[in-house]
Amino acid sequence: MKERLFMFFAIFCVFNLSQAQNQVNFKNDSVKNYIDKTFLLIHDNALNKDKINWSSLQAEIYEKTKDADHIADALPVYPYVFEKIEDHHGWLSYKKKNYRWNKNTQKLENKAVNNAVKKYEKVYAVVLHKNIGYLRIPGNNDFGAKKMDSLTNNIVEEIDKINSNKIKGWIIDLRVNTGGNMYPMIAGISDIIGDNEKIGGFVNSNNQSEGEWFLKNGTIYIDANQVLNRRKLKIPIKKGLPAAVLISGYTASSGEMTAIAFVGRNKTRLFGEESGGYTTTNQGFEIDKNSGLNLAVGYAADRKGKVYNENVKPDIEIVGGDNFEDLAKDEKVRRSIKWIGEEAVKH
Prior knowledge:
The structure is a single chain. The protein has helices at about 20, 30-45, 55-65, 70-75, 80-85, 110-120, 150-160, 180-190, 190-195, 255-260, 330-345, and strands at about 1-5, 90-95, 95-100, 125-130, 130-135, 170-175, 195-205, 210-215, 220, 225-230, 245, 270, 280-290, 290-300, 305-310, 315. It has 2 domains: about 1-100, no CATH class; about 110-275 and about 310-345, 2-enoyl-CoA Hydratase, Chain A, domain 1, CATH 3.90.226. It has about 350 residues and is of the alpha/beta class. It contains 11 helices and 16 strands.
């Protein structure tokens, strides 16, 4: 998901514990302090905070952790907490180990894509049929937003390798994009997505805007805040070329955000299978030097205002037929090439 770039300062409300909860005796006070600190963060910021019976949930957490000898012994409670707040995109990290709710999803099992996720970890570009640009963008692990420039440059360099005035359409392959930082992905292909326009945004559980995504001269903004700029391509991409976006059940989080940035663009179609269903926006909170909390705090919306609270569905569903080793035999690529050819003939 989108992993929020900006850090916000939480203003904690005073949470009054009931008399019964105050009487819970913890074996270790440091465990209780840790539980209380994380509980307040979750209480104040969770996406579904208005739907939760917080007193009841806190009583359950206390009961499950009161006999813990150490903080590490209490951590198995957090997958349960994330389940109760219906957040399968968030997690608690403690000494580099993550505790999250592994929700059973209806993701289509696709062995070809699953194997490709493990194999293809670098951006890759090639020209197909002499005049169609193919660009595969995998996920990244830039959750701390420390590698945005290099990640963006990787995409730009690959586009430069194949871009020419002969290109009549683009295939953006997000099937192996499991997430990471959305900003370098979108900035890297901003010339294909469009320019000087809104391409999406974040909304809270009440559908109120939490920041709109804009592209301008290769720069991505959230509202008026510049997030990322990048160098120009050696050869400008022709405006308004057809774009086919490939998605799968492994397209998740920021991969889904990147796909959403294309929705509503002229001459654009999404091909493949339904995405993974991690379309919530995440925000990180530091707990202490050993741990942090990542919470779903909103949803992604496309440029026309449609909110994605489940997943991204393709315009043209194609189940299976993936062949990353020989793209000429890949059914999703073949159908995309056919569609791009039909669009190019129209103009």
